[in-house]
Protein 1
Amino acid sequence: MAIYLTKESKVLVQGMTGGEGMKHTRRMLAAGTNIVGGVNPRKAGRTVDFDDRAVPVYGSVADGMRSTGADVTVVFVPPAFAKAAVTEAADAGIGLAVVITEGIPVHDSVAFTAYARAKGTRIIGPNCPGLITPGQANAGIIPADITKPGRIGLMSKSGTLTYQLMYELRDIGFSTCVGIGGDPVVGTSHIDCLAAFQDDPDTELVVLIGEIGGDAEERAAAYIRDHVTKPVVGYIAGFTAPEGRTMGHAGAIVSGSSGTAAAKKEALEAVGVGVGRTPTETARLVLDRLDRLERN
């Protein structure tokens, strides 16, 4: 099992014919993803060869969906065109849009995430590495060869930390890894992923990676207290960050005591979440919790 993305998913790539789109489409195909088409209105009707696979290009998401039954789109378009691309996908009725693009203006993200939600389209991102269900499908830029299928569900604001925890826990493996993105506005939250992993029968333990700034992790802690029965292990990036300064991601800003790593750690630990201070310590906590599950 998995959340959001499986081997049955049929994937379009908006911006497939650009440099980044071409590179990552090839990687997604190599991971077994069922990519059924690209979208570029200026190149509609052509095909693009990826090794032994010819992928058709459609003029719109709606055309691609009609021709292929696609239910996922991965967005590799420049920031200025991201709002239009996501709006087009939502208007076509696609179920999942994975928005890789970084540097999107916040007002555009606010507009298209709200619009997509009203249309019934789930957004992953923006400014995210996408998501991967190891051994089944990969939608985005997450390396497919650093882990294997397994029983851990992972959600993360940080792409780099997603990769590191996947690698540290590669011997156990993952059901699905979701990079939710580090911008102030994202389409899928920690809470959304927690709910999905809670309902996934093959996810035995959940890893939550957060970072300084905002209150998403505190809200996730309240949700865990009330709704999650599976063990959760967390990691918060930014214990050594100075106050009042943005740290990498646009959402990672601390004001006073609000949004600090210590405050988030305290909130999570108060509801039974083990929180590591480093990725390696977090991996050790995961192994310890899994060992307890097996002994019980």
Protein 2
Amino acid sequence: MSKHADSAHPTRPAVAWIGLGIMGSPMSENLIKAGYDVTGFTLEQDKLDRLTAAGGTAAGSIAQAVRDADVVITMVPASPQVEAIAYGPDGILENARAGTLLIDMSSITPQTSVDLAKAAVEKGIRVLDAPVSGGEAGAIEAVLSIMVGGGQSDFEEAEPIFDALGRTIVLCGPHGSGQTVKAANQLIVAVNIQACAEAVVFLEKSGVDLAAALDVLNGGLAGSTVLTRKKDNFLNRDFKPGFRIDLHHKDMGIVTDAARNVGAALPVGAVVAQLVASLRAQGDGGLDHSALLRSVERLSGAQL
């Protein structure tokens, strides 16, 4: 356990955080604010500098970050990155102590999470898959929705950490269940953004005051967290990434593949997955997923 405890912050587990991107940086900072000792590793020096400025400790490698940790949290883009940081001589499983709790908060395939949990058992390391929803704003404000797969006792041990990061925290079932629920989340979000984007183009071409229209729509049954969070993106054509099209493309592949495996038909989801893919093919992969609006604009005759 962390030795740096005081009366304001009772003893908390020492945390290693691997992956300090758009989500990982503000999430790790929220843990520091909550009184945790956080040692971080990521590939970009400026992100490590940001962590130390916030009161964390920068490590020079994964091995260095995890060797004294009670809890290791990972937040990286996709399954290949999770496998790269978890396995091998320089990875988490070889260098973390037996008894460590590994919480993977990346959004990856359910099978990758199941395989990681199995491999970790041999090292005496416990694993939770705990992907999140809420985007960059939710990460900054510590209001993320966290969907967890794994054991009940491990979940209960991790709950204080989750409480510092999010608002809706639910154990969804065994290993991989968190990722399955996250895949469903990404399906709903993508379809919702697409519907909003189509409405925006329809409203603008009809000559309606867009800001007024979106306000009244968001107050009724058509209202949604997506519309609340992305309304200004649509109004201002501001597609600075909170969640990149590239990553949503990855997630639509996960949900499409997982649905095929269990025999679930996703007809609208399949269409939106192709629209996300086409947006990426047109060079917009680095933009926020609200940039699905650009796809609808192109289909409606705009030259972008």
